[in-house]
Amino acid sequence: MTAADDLAAAVDLAVATIRGAGPERYTDSTPCSDYTVADVVNHLAFGFLLAHHAATREPWPESWAATDRAPFLRDLPEAEWAEAAAKEGAAAAAAWADPAVWEGESHLGGGPMPAAAIGAMMTGEFVVHSWDLATATGQELAVPPALGEVTLEAMSGMAAMGRDAGWIGPEVAVAEDRPAFERALGVAGRDPARTT
């Protein structure tokens, strides 16, 4: 599989968990500290939009703040969030399908970064937050071993920066003989044994 295939698989996983997290669960807590289910759905939706713009190299509008509601969800009732997120996720995956998009530099709203690093980071983010949603809402999450390895590599590459910035918690110890995805969760500050 290519990096683009991995990103598309991560988007598909995230969309499936968003669809499985009905609006009646949106006020529930999640493993993602201080985030409700609605917050994680919004975070993934915004992530799809940011990934899309990173692929196309379009600048972010000045009115965007990653802590806000995703612009395309702002005026929608929560019952329509899943389909709107699915549409934006598909657009992001399609934009990253072009191998040329992975070359050179792009951005995530700040300074320039290698596009390949952004693509890998977003892949890992989508998979880990899919676990957050699945765990919070009682869904089964099947992460293929290869995608687990990609997620572990992505999380390992960004964990120190995320901890310094306060958006990744302390690492949770996970045995080296556990599957790569469980170890990725530990690196991302999650306890893979958590069930709610």
From TrEMBL:
Show the Gene3D superfamilies listed in the entry: dinb family like domain
Q: Which domain of life is it from?
A: Bacteria
Q: Which InterPro entries does this UniProt record tie to the protein?
A: CHP03086 (IPR017520), DinB/YfiT-like (IPR034660), Maleyloyr_isom (IPR017517), MDMPI_metal-binding (IPR024344)
Q: Domain Mycothiol-dependent maleylpyruvate isomerase metal-binding: where?
A: 8-134
Q: What NCBIfam families does UniProt report for this protein, alphabetically?
A: maleylpyruvate isomerase family mycothiol-dependent enzyme (TIGR03083), TIGR03086 family metal-binding protein (TIGR03086)
Task: Give the protein name, as stated in the record.
Answer: Mycothiol-dependent maleylpyruvate isomerase metal-binding domain-containing protein
Species name = Pseudonocardia ailaonensis
